[in-house]
Request: fold
Amino acid sequence: MEWDDCRDVFHADGSLRDIYVLNTTTEDWRRLFDAFLQYERTLYCDGDPTTMIEDPATIFEGCSKHHYLLKVLVRGVALHCHFFTIEEIEIDVDPKEINSQRDLDAVLDAMGSIGRALARPVLLTEETTQDFVWIAFDPAMNAFEYFEH
Reply:
């Protein structure tokens, strides 16, 4: 996928872009954590860095009392993974960080790693809008598709 073809995906309009994997289970979250082992990771609890918890089920157990956020650094691009619900993986990307082919490749690398690890489609959308898909990764085809809007 070429930067010049899809740079509009990352227009800085004040909103974020979301990476989604839908209909997930605790086992999918474990596979996600395994896929993220190749990247620099920092876990935050109530806004402060904390010791990395390797089992996402433990994080979800603590979500009734604390807010957790996992920051994953992929070739200089920060991805922010939220723990809203077990049934949905949501990861934020700030479009202001995506300004070149290298940055785009980092996002695609992460999406591909996630999709292959979970054997599930991965969507890049407008913020909180699962139906407004910009880029999709299909693990069965090991391919990305760009949707021009």
